[in-house]
Fold this sequence. Notes:
The structure is a single chain. The protein is α/β, with parallel strands linked by helices. It has helices at 22-27, 60-68, 87-102, 118-124, 142-152, 159-172, 191-203, 221-238, 249-252, 273-278, 283-290; strands at residues 7-17, 33-44, 49-53, 75-80, 83-85, 125-128, 209-213, 241-246, 258-263, 266-272, 341-344, 347-349. A hairpin with a 2-residue loop joins strand 9 (258-263) and strand 10 (266-272). Helix 5 (142-152) packs across helix 6, helix 5 (142-152) packs parallel to helix 7 (191-203) and helix 6 (159-172) packs across helix 7 (191-203).
Amino acid sequence: MSATPVLEVRDLRKYYAVPRPLTDLLAGRPPQTVKAVDGVSFTLARGEVLALVGESGCGKTTIAKTLIGLEEQTDGDIRFNGQSVGAGARRLRAAMLSVGTSRAHTVSAPPLPPRLALKGLRQRAQMVFQDPYESLNPRATIFDVVSEPLEVHGVARRRSDRLARVKAALEDAGLRPAEDYLWRYPHELSGGQRQRVVIAGAMVLQPELLIADEPVSMLDVSVRAEILNLLRDLRRARGISLLFITHDLSTVAYFADRIAVMYLGRIVELGPTRAVLEDPRHPYTRALLSVVPVPNPRLRRQRVILQGETPNPLQVPTGCRFHPRCPAVFARCPHFDPALTPVGDGHAAACLLVAPR
């Protein structure tokens, strides 16, 4: 693997301002903010699969949309192949230019950092969305759907070249022979075939990074293994990096190299897949693992049923944000917010039970 990670995320934050009703405006109440992503950091090496796991509403999809440029981060830095992209790069560029302008007679502006345009980023980083029924244009043929990225980015301008690229992408996605699918419409395909078309549309540009947001959650169980095998084979054949977003730990155990467990906008545990699954150090990870079905009744874990609902993101609990639901809560938890603490080789957890005093 390359020494420079394909993707590096530093202290990423994404906040949403809640519209205020007229009564709040008249009363002068301050605006409220939803902290969807609140200080997330991780790296993704070339050819690596990182699974982002957590229950609904924890911020997984927001991270994916921010990485691909569909949302603009509030703060933090996103680096693709060592180059800053997105709003962080724009703010840094503006700050450097302002320094150079205000001190034009005394200090020259520092050299600008290398920066990728959003269009260039999307040519090398693609996303597979969760619902194949909504992500495909029902009025477009499969050829039109898969070839659209080539037209947008000016790749393979001749129709014969686009046709060859589309056929190869469909074949790689398991739709063989490709000629049987080129001129069909999405409603003529099954759910698994539609998701393969979505994957083909993402892979036709031969990206370095693929972000898969719950790619099998809308499919039947019998089809899920086929899509997971497809992603695994594409990763091995092309050496792409994969950010796999899911809520199912039993799925990521199949082919992920590392797991990042999210709760309420933050990563609470991060480490190699085997270490996280066999020795979870955060109570939330233990609770998620306890409800994973195990075929052998002798190996089943005692279920940990979390009490209450996920806290309102408008009112994040003080201290450890998991303490209102934590079965191992103690006196210090509501007062101290733990950071990710190393607990092993590449394994870290954000819990006071493992953090040094």
